[in-house]
Amino acid sequence: MIVVQMNERSSSLDIARVCDHQERRGMQIRVVPGRRGSTIVCEGHSETDLELKKLPSVKAVSRTNCSYPLASLEVSGPQGPVQIGRGLSIGGGSVAVMAGPCSVESREQLLETARGVASSGASVLRGGAFKPRSNPYSFQGLGSQGIDLLLEAREDTGLPIVTEVMSPEDVEWLAPQVDILQVGTRSMQNFPLLKALGRVDTPVLLKRGMASTVDEWLQAAEYILAGGNSRVILCERGIRSFDKSTRNTLDLSIVPLVKSLTHLPVVVDPSHATGKRHLVAPMSLAALAAGADGLIVEVHSRPEEALCDGPQSLDLPAFDGLMNRISRLMEALEPEESEWGLKVAM
Ligand code: PEP
Ligand code: MN
Q1: What's the CATH code of the domain at 16?
Q2: Are residue 212 and residue 299 in the same domain, yes or no?
Q3: Rounded to an integer, what distance in angstroms lies between the CA atom of residue 271 and that of residue 277?
Q4: Are residues 99 and 130 both part of a single domain?
Q5: Residue 25: which domain range?
Q6: Any idea which GO molecular function terms this record carries (predicted)?
Q7: pLDDT score of 192 more than 80
Q8: Does pLDDT of 344 surpass 50?
Q9: Given a cut of 50, is residue 262 above it in pLDDT?
C-alpha cells in the first residue's frame, strides 16, 4: 500500500493528476479529504515511486503494510485532539469525563442526573435513546423521544451530549443534532454503520467489540476515517473472558499499547467493563494512570430504579466523590507523567 499525503494547498487538479498516475500503475485509490490536505490511499503492488515525491503538490509518500494507515501514528503522525463543538477537545492532554445514565428513561430522571453530573464537573452528558439490548423483551430505549430529552438536558446544563446510534439510516438525521455519536460494542463491525459515520463530521465514540482484537478495532476506526470523518475517539469497555466474576474483563494494558499505535484519543468505560458499582472508581483511576484521555461512566440519580445497568451505575454523591479523586490523581501524576500527555484537567 502507498499513502500519498498532499499539501494543504493542493488543488483538485493536483489530486486528480496523482490519482491518474497511480491508477495507470494498476492501483486502487481512495482520496480522503483532511484538514491539513488530502490523503490518497493507494492499494496494490507498486515500487515506491520517486516521481511522485518530486511533485510540489505532494508532501510525503510512504509505503506501508499497515491495515489502518489513516489511524496509524507511524504512517499519519500525530493529528491533535478531537474537537467536540466549540468548547471541548478530547485527547489534548486534559481528561474528559462523560457521565450520565445508561438509558434516557424520563425527563425527570435525565434532568436530575444531568444537573448532578454537570455540577460535579463532567464534561459530556451520556444517555442512550436507542438501546442495543440482548433480550427483545428488555427496555429498548425511548428512541427519538429520548433524543429530544437529551437536547433539552444539553440546553439546561450546557453539556455536550453523546448517544448511541445503531442503524445506518439514523446517522444522517442524528449527526447534526448531537455532539458525539456512540458505536456500541455490538456494532463495532457493522460496516454499513461505520461507512455512514464516515460520511458525516460528527465525532464518533467507537467502542471496542467485546471479542475484537486491537487490529480489528483500529480497522473499524479506519472505515470511519477512510470515509472522510477524522473525528474518532476509541473506547475500551472490557472484553469477554472465562471469568464471570466481573461482567467483562477490562483490558487496561491496551490503553498505552493503542496510544503507541494510533493518534486517536482513547477513553475507558469502567462501568460496562466491570458491571459492579464498587469497581468503577478504582478502575477509573487506574485507566487515567495508564494514560487514558478520558472516561465514560454510568451515573443515575436513583440507580436502584434504573431500567438498565443499575448495578454498575454510580449515584450522584458517588460520582462527585470520584471526580474529586480524579482531580487529586491528575495533580499527583502531572509532574512525572507529563510525557504521557497527562495534565491537571478539572
Ligand atoms: C452503553 O454504553 O450503554 C452500552 C450499551 O455499552 P456497550 O456497547 O459497551 O455494551
Ligand atoms: Mn449501559
Answers
A1: 3.30.70.1140
A2: yes
A3: 7
A4: yes
A5: 2-63
A6: 3-deoxy-7-phosphoheptulonate synthase activity
A7: yes
A8: no
A9: yes
**Is 90 within 8 Å of 96 (Cβ atoms)?**
yes
CA distance 61 to 7: 11
Smallest CA separation from ligand 1 atom 8, residue: 184
59 and 136 belong to one structural domain? no
Looking at 57-174, list the stretches that DSSP marks H as alpha helix, in order from N- to C-terminal side. Answer: 73-76, 107-120, 144-157, 168-174
Q: Give the model's pLDDT for residue 53.
A: 87
Whether residues 121 and 86 share a domain: the answer is: yes
Between 48 and 187, name the one with better pLDDT: 187
247 lines ligand 1 (CB under 6 A): no
* Longest distance between any two alpha carbons in the chain, whole Å: 66
Residue of 150, 164, 236, 248 with the most ligand 1 atoms within 8 Å of its CB, for mutation = 164
Q: How far is the CA of 309 from the centre of ligand 1 (A)?
A: 9
Cell of 196: 455512514
In this structure, the answer to whether residues 12 and 88 fall within a common structural domain is no
Nearest atom, ligand 1, residue 131 CA: 5
Q: What is the pLDDT of residue 45?
A: 77
Residue closest by Cα to atom 1 of ligand 1? 102
Q: Can you say whether residue 27 is alpha, beta or left, with left for phi > 0 and alpha for psi between -120 and 50 degrees? A: beta
338 pLDDT band, cuts 50/70/90, is very low
Instruction: Judge if 223 and 164 occupy the same domain.
Output: yes
Same domain, 177 and 318: yes
